[in-house]
């Protein structure tokens, strides 16, 4: 239940401006989806949200407090790949968050505390449909199961916001549909704030309560790197039915100016 | 016609083919040995298996007149002890420094050039220095093995850690892990099987340094013995000793591999 404020954020690498004048808020409980072609700064923005890189100018606040300068427990993440630890079983992966928090030094819990951590982990693993593979290693799971584990693992840390970085991009369509409905269920139950980055418009418009897009509004043909991307589109989908969402998507696509080849190739992958 | 690159032997043929070179060498040896012994029954260069067996039997099953030891076993024990100390210490050193170099940028900046330079120094060239500084006892031999093996292991581990997907380290931080927790819960357990693999590849070099050290200054050990009996052209002892060293190296490799598979079942699945 947390609000994110992005206040006039810029990101520059030397002479290259990637992001500029980003200034918007993500409300508490919102499911905000950032879409856009590759190279529009989606990933860079996510890295800023995670504090994986310093912000050049401006600041990002969560509930009015500037985010820490390194990744922390208030911002959970599910990546497209490598989100779960290969050396831990399903149960071990899920328990890790509690163990790290409660056993400050060794990160290992024993006895009754371990039992409670195990119960909490088992419960949510059952919820995401992994109750029957508690002692499997991630390499023995399908891609969809690994991502469900990653979500359970992130949720058990009770982050203020959950970040999804192309989290479902590598899954086949039926698996993706399954995990989408699971994600929506968990989001509604917990009333959490979710920020998702995806290049899949359909996904964005079926999950989000809000879809935003970064793009360049200023261009200098002589110096393509001089200006960065900023927020160019912002659509509110709150309370929309599936049909209305389809219409929103259709009108979004109508208003998309001649997609580049790169966009079309990316869309074609999904 | 099928290309030869597409023709694959079945498991039985694979096993048979694997044995062919061993058999060929054995047969070739027996033939050559027979020819030489036929011409000169006292030939020492290519002794018969019978004379090797009796020479080794002498060393292995009858106590030495002077010391009362069974020399073959005493040699094996002291060599293995030195190896175990050298490789064990290298392993621990590599874990500590490898993790520091691979995970902590300041440590890497501080130590990378030094470790790189150190690993370019031929360890055998340092042997005289070790003998002068540490004496001719066990310590100098163990340190030689460490100098030969540890820099490679450190660099290998640090590289492996740098190659870990950054996602895992970010994920751990978003789960609230401190640096120490990241080391004990994420990096160390993921690197142990890699370190054991590195150790397996170090078995050869470790034996090399051990035998070199034993050859130069020692009073027992497998390397000492073969260099000692070399003076008498005692091929009937040298050849079985070399085979025994190879067998021990093979068993060490097998042991480490089985250990790694038992302890880290996840590592095999994810490769």
UniProtKB/TrEMBL annotation, chain A:
GO molecular function list: ATP binding; ATP hydrolysis activity
PROSITE patterns, A to Z? ABC_TRANSPORTER_1, ABC_TRANSPORTER_2
Q: Which SUPFAM superfamilies match?
A: P-loop containing nucleoside triphosphate hydrolases
Per UniProt, the keywords (alphabetical) are: ATP-binding, Nucleotide-binding, Transport
**Pfam families reported in the protein's UniProt record:** ABC_tran (PF00005)
Instruction: Show where the ABC transporter domain sits.
Output: 4-239
Name the InterPro entries for this protein: AAA+_ATPase, ABC_SmlMolc_Importer, ABC_transporter-like_ATP-bd, ABC_transporter-like_CS, P-loop_NTPase
Family membership: Belongs to the ABC transporter superfamily.
Q: What is this protein called?
A: NitT/TauT family transport system ATP-binding protein
What is the native source organism of this protein? Hyphomicrobium facile
TrEMBL record, chain B:
Keyword Nucleotide-binding present in the record's keywords: the answer is: no
* Keywords in alphabetical order: Cell membrane, Membrane, Transmembrane, Transmembrane helix, Transport
Q: Membrane topology per the record?
A: Multi-pass membrane protein
Q: Which residues form the ABC transmembrane type-1 domain?
A: 80-260
The cellular component terms of Gene Ontology attached to this UniProt record, alphabetical and capped at eight, are: plasma membrane
Where in or outside the cell is it found?
Cell membrane
Listed transmembrane segments: 12-31, 83-107, 114-136, 142-159, 198-217, 237-259
**Which InterPro entries does the UniProt entry name for this protein?**
MetI-like (IPR000515), MetI-like_sf (IPR035906)
Is Transmembrane there in the keyword field? yes
The UniProt entry, under Pfam families, shows: BPD_transp_1
Q: Give the GO terms filed under biological process for this record.
A: cellular response to sulfur starvation; transmembrane transport
Q: Which family does it belong to?
A: Belongs to the binding-protein-dependent transport system permease family.
* Database matches in PANTHER family: ALKANE SULFONATE ABC TRANSPORTER-RELATED, MEMBRANE SUBUNIT, TAURINE TRANSPORT SYSTEM PERMEASE PROTEIN TAUC
Tell me the protein's name: NitT/TauT family transport system permease protein
Q: Which organism is it from?
A: Hyphomicrobium facile
